[in-house]
């Protein structure tokens, strides 16, 4: 479908194609419009050419516009109307019936399909626009109109007639009217939040339970995951959603919950930082075949050995030396390290029986 110009209530290509109130210049306008009509049909004869009138006047005024054009031989396939509450000065309660009445009259008189090819309302009033569009399309359907188009809904946020949600960067709830949805409130698509305050410190937990509130407008949440970066710590698939994080490692964790819908869309909570603390005394006690044992307690690493100890070095995993100690044949030594709780360290022990390397977590 194509239009032989934008709204042509006053003609186009002035001054040659201007339509005046006294009816002059009709022949020139018809000649120009028919040339455009023929050019479109030459490309594809199935394309429907619209004659678009922006002024939603009364029936008699509309007839006064179309009658002379029809008599002069104007060629068109579809009648297009504009229906803006602001531009017509009609309220959203009056305009739908007015537009439908005119559409019905024009369809019967000229035996052409009639469509509203432009409509729009306030971008900052999505609910009001949704209600207006629902009423307009109901009236148009009842009148036998061929369709309805919203003018440029994706225009910039501050455009008066857009239908754009700046938060979601998608069209607003206003256009749900085209799906037959008349809303009483602006709906969310999907949202998720922590259900209450999240504790920031957990002491010696076996399992951490984190309740989450997650909702979808059409109940299409597939799962809720507890995430740390890209790692999934826990998953819940049934409401009410509670995430059970088992055997969390000691240390600081930046976590968030992420809901995934059946269509792949996701929504996430805020990221929160939690600390998992564990009593690390004897939590790792590694004994090698040569009888070397490591223990940690707070910021201390204790090495015990059946064989005499000579030298101990402790490194972080990036190779940085954290502590070292020369031992003169003792069977026990304690070193102080500055690593934070939960840090994995590499311990190198030289004994009379040889050198051994092992890992331990603070």
Describe this protein with a few key phrases.
3 domains; Immunoglobulin-like; alpha+beta; 362 residues; TIM Barrel; six-stranded mixed beta sheet; 19% helix; rod-shaped
Query: How many structural domains are formed by the residues?
Result: 3
| CATH class wording of the largest domain | Alpha Beta
Helix tally?
Answer: 5
CATH level 4 superfamily of the largest domain: Glycosidases
| Helix residue percentage | 10-25%
| Shape estimate | rod-shaped
Gap between N and C termini: 72 Å
Describe the model.
This protein has 362 residues and is of the alpha+beta class. The protein folds into 3 domains: 2-179, TIM Barrel, CATH 3.20.20; 190-277, Immunoglobulin-like (Sandwich); 286-361, Immunoglobulin-like, CATH 2.60.40.10. Helices cover 19% and strands 36% of the residues. The protein is built from 5 helices and 24 strands. The protein has helices spanning 26-43, 59-71, 85-88, 95-110, 126-142; strands at 2-3, 49-53, 78-83, 114-119, 147-148, 164-165, 170-171, 190-194, 201-203, 207-216, 221-228, 231-236, 241-246, 251-261, 266-268, 272-277, 286-287, 292-297, 300-305, 309-316, 321-326, 332-336, 344-351, 354-361. The strands form 6 sheets. Strands 9, 11, 12, 14, 15 and 16 form a 6-stranded mixed sheet that branches. Strands 1-2-3-4-5 form a 5-stranded parallel sheet. It has a 4-stranded antiparallel sheet with strand order 17-18-19-22, with no helix packed on it. Helix 4 packs parallel to helix 5 (126-142). The longest helix has 18 residues, at 26-43. It is rod-shaped and about 120 Å long.
């Amino acid at each position: 479908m194509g239009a032989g110009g934008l709204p042509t209530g006053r003609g186009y290509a002035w001054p040659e194609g201007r339509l005046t109130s006294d009816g002059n210049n009709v022949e020139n306008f018809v000649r120009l419009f028919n040339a455009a009509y023929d050019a479109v049909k030459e490309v594809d004869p199935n394309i429907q050419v619209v004659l678009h009138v922006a002024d939603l006047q009364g029936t008699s005024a509309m007839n006064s516009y179309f009658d002379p054009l029809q008599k002069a031989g104007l060629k068109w396939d579809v009648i297009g109307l504009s229906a803006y509450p602001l531009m017509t000065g009609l309220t959203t309660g009056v305009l739908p019936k007015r537009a439908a009445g005119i559409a019905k009259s024009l369809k019967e008189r000229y035996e052409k399909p009639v469509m509203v090819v432009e409509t729009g309302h306030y971008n900052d009033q999505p609910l009001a626009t949704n209600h207006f569009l629902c009423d307009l399309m109901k009236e148009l359907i009842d009148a036998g109109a061929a369709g309805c188009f919203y003018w440029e809904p994706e225009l910039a946020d501050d455009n008066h007639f857009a239908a754009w949600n700046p938060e979601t960067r998608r069209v607003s709830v206003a256009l749900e009217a085209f799906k037959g949805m008349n809303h009483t409130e602006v709906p969310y698509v999907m949202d998720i939040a922590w259900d209450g305050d999240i504790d920031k410190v957990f002491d010696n937990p076996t399992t951490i339970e984190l309740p989450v509130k997650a909702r979808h407008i059409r109940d299409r949440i597939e799962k809720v995951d507890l995430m740390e970066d890209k790692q999934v710590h826990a998953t819940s698939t049934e409401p009410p959603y509670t995430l059970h994080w088992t055997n969390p490692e000691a240390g600081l964790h930046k976590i968030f919950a992420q809901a995934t819908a059946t269509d792949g869309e996701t929504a996430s909570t805020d990221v929160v930082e939690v600390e998992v603390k564990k009593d690390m005394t004897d939590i790792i006690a590694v004994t090698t075949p040569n009888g070397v044992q490591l223990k940690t307690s707070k910021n201390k690493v204790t090495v015990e050995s059946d064989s005499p100890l000579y030298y101990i070095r402790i490194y972080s995993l990036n190779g940085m030396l954290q502590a070292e100690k020369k031992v003169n044949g003792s069977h026990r030594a304690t070193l102080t390290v500055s690593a934070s709780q939960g840090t994995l360290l590499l311990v190198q022990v030289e004994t009379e029986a040889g050198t051994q390397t092992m890992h331990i977590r603070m």
